[in-house]
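Structure ticket #2291
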Amino acid sequence: MAKGTDATKAEGDLFLEHLTKSYGDFKAVDDLSLQVPQGSFFALLGPSGCGKTTTLRMVAGLEEPTGGSIRIGSQDITYAKPYQRPVNTVFQNYALFPHMSIFENVAFGLRRRGVKDVKSQVEDALELIELSQVASRKPGQLSGGQQQRVALARAIVNRPAVLLLDEPLGALDLKLRRTMQLELKRIQTEVGLTFIHVTHDQEEAMTMADTVAVMNQGVIEQMGAPLDLYEHPHTAFVANFLGQSNLFPAVVVERAGDEIELEDPDGVFRMPMARVAKSVDTQRGARVLVGVRPEKIHIERRTEAHEAPSSGNFVDGVVLSASFLGVSTQYEVRTPAGELIDVFAQNLSGRGLIPAGEQVRLTWAASHGFVLDGRQDVNAGVEIDPEAEAAG
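Resolution: structure written out below.
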């Protein structure tokens, strides 16, 4: 157990080891272990109630674990008081002091610790967030985005080993939120602190984080670089929650070398084994889920002259709806077997929409699909409403 000022000197990677938080019979966080490299931008992503905010609060010292440990470098801070930890938190509501100037808000933590040369450190922090010109103003005179940057500067100026961000952009409108995503990443890169960002917003996580951990029901379903999670989901939950996926049941026909052949009522598909999740049973007759992202699919009107493509996968269907979205058109297509497939087609040629009722062929490269364990719920992660997100 860390005591006194020892914990405030801790630095290094953040280690969560078998971390558990139970409320009676309910496990909000279930035997969670991970390592966050020092100086990285790490995101905990998941729906309401998945355990991400509870995890954050345990790192901050606001919740006591039921089991497991928390270390920064070699320093155990599992039971250290919040003020003993080299950790600061930035909340969604900013928590600025309305009666203090921006300068005094940023200086508050330094003054409490008796730090000398407060002026230069505060000025450096305000320069970092590009708000030096508003140092004498009160928080109420600033926009929401400016207030969020001040809250960030107030935390950064204390040079914590770990900075926790609890849905920090949730109160901002969409356009400002996207601007602040880039700002947060710029600031993190410049100061080199470890950022741990809790969010339900997939775009936020993928835009800013070096590593994303997707949480569901108290456990991490998958963790990795944003591109890897998106292109190689291991579970139906990750495939559906991180972006959008078409998933449809199929069975294994055969495995031949580096490829696997799958079949469903709409046809036969071939996939490279590199696109098959490790949990998948590849024995003949095993149930699987075939997945493909909507933007990976090419759609065109079907003609009598159409032949099966020499490479890649295809399925025929009829357009149920077409929605023009500006940069792309979203189609919903029904296959002969009754599967509904979403397609996002880039508006490159200005050729116009394919109308509802039109017969179409959908094709995609074998390397753009993926195969998951067929015992999973095909709708896992689909019915989550991010706008209804509360503290998770």
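Closing remark: The first helix runs from residue 52 to 60.
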